[in-house]
Amino acid sequence: MRSPLIDVAVGSDISKRYSANFDVTYLRERPLLAVLADGMGDGPGSAAAGRTAVDIFVDYVMRAPEPTPDTLRAAVAAAHDQVSRIGHELQSLAGCTLTAMAAAPQGCWLVQIGDSRVYRLRTGLLELLTTDHTMAWLGAVHGWYPFDSAHAASARYQLTRYIGHGGAPEPDVLSVTMRPGDRYLMCTDGVSDQVDYDDLRTFLGRDTRPQSVVSDILAASDTAGGSDNATAIVIRVD
Fold first, then answer.
1. What is the 3-class SS of the chain, one letter each residue?
2. What is the CATH number of the domain that holds 174?
3. pTM to 2 decimals?
C-alpha cells in the first residue's frame, strides 16, 4: 500500500508556571514516527524519564523491519525498566507519559500510556482517539463525580498508567487509518486542559500548514493561562 502524503509540524512552550520544559518529542515525517513524552513533576527524574523513554522507544522502532504491536509493547517495557532504574538511583519520582504514532502498511499504529492525547479531525468531526489513563477519566466515565468538579481536577493528577510505574502497565496499541483530508493532533495535557474542543476543531480545520496550526494552538494555551508545559504535533494528510 502506498504511504499517504503528509505534512507535519511540532512546537512546544515552557509556559508561565515552569522555568524548564519537561515535554520531549521526536518527529520524523517519512515514514511517519511521532513520539511525545510528558515528564511527571519538575524534578530531575521528570527530565530524565521523558528523554530516556523517547530515546528507547525511537530506537526500538528504528531497528524493527516494520513496527508491530509486539515491537511497540516491547519498546514501552524497555522504557519502563530504564526509567524505574533512574528513579531508584535518584531515590525520587521518575516517570512520564508516552504517546506515539508510527507508520504501518494499513495506516498507522497509535501507542498510548498516560494522559497526553491524540485527536483526529475527519470530515468536520473532531474525535479523541485516546483514553486518559487517570482517575479523573474513570470517575467521569462511571459518574463518580462531575468532570468539571474540584474532585475531578485533583484526580487528573492521579495517573493509572505511566512510564516508570512499578507494575509496568502495557500501553494501548490501536490501528488507525489515514485518509486524505485527515488532521491529527498529538498534545500534552498542557494543551488539552486549556484549549477547548471547539477551538481545537477550528484550528485544525483551517486550510493552513501544520506549523501555523501548532503556533495557534500554543498561543491559545498560553492565553488560557499557560499553567503547564504545552506541546503539540500536527499531522496533515494530503
1. CCCCCEEEEEEEECCCCCCCCCEEEEEECCCCEEEEEEECCCCHHHHHHHHHHHHHHHHHHHHCCCCCHHHHHHHHHHHHHHHHHHHHHHCCCCCEEEEEEEEECCEEEEEEECCCEEEEEECCEEEECCCCCEHHHHHHHCCCCCCCCHHHHHHCCCECCCECCCCCCCCEEEEECCCCCCEEEEECHHHHCCCCHHHHHHHHHCCCCHHHHHHHHHHHHHHCCCCCCEEEEEEEEC
2. 3.60.40.10
3. 0.95
